[in-house]
Amino acid sequence: xxxxxxxxxxxxxLNEKLGALQKNYTDLKMAHAITPMENPLQxxxxxxTVARIATExxxxxxx
Length: 63
Hints:
- It comes from Polaribacter reichenbachii.
- Belongs to the universal ribosomal protein uL29 family.
- Keywords: Ribonucleoprotein, Ribosomal protein.
- One of its GO terms (cellular component) is ribonucleoprotein complex.
- This protein has one domain (1-60).
- The protein is 83% helix and 0% strand.
- It is built from three helices and no strands.
- Helix 2 (11-34) runs antiparallel to helix 3.
- It is elongated and about 45 Å long.
- The two termini are 23 Å apart.
- The model has no long low-confidence stretch (mean pLDDT 95).
């Protein structure tokens, strides 16, 4: 998910998406620990997307 797409979403949508992505990331991380994934770069991109959304939420709280 790109930063421009994140900025267009409402705060409620961002909170909802953040929870879903964090759960998905945790599930993938556990699955990768048991059996290695075909493409471990999925973990990196998912982690960075979670960070982008969390950063946008923090920025909106400070304004």
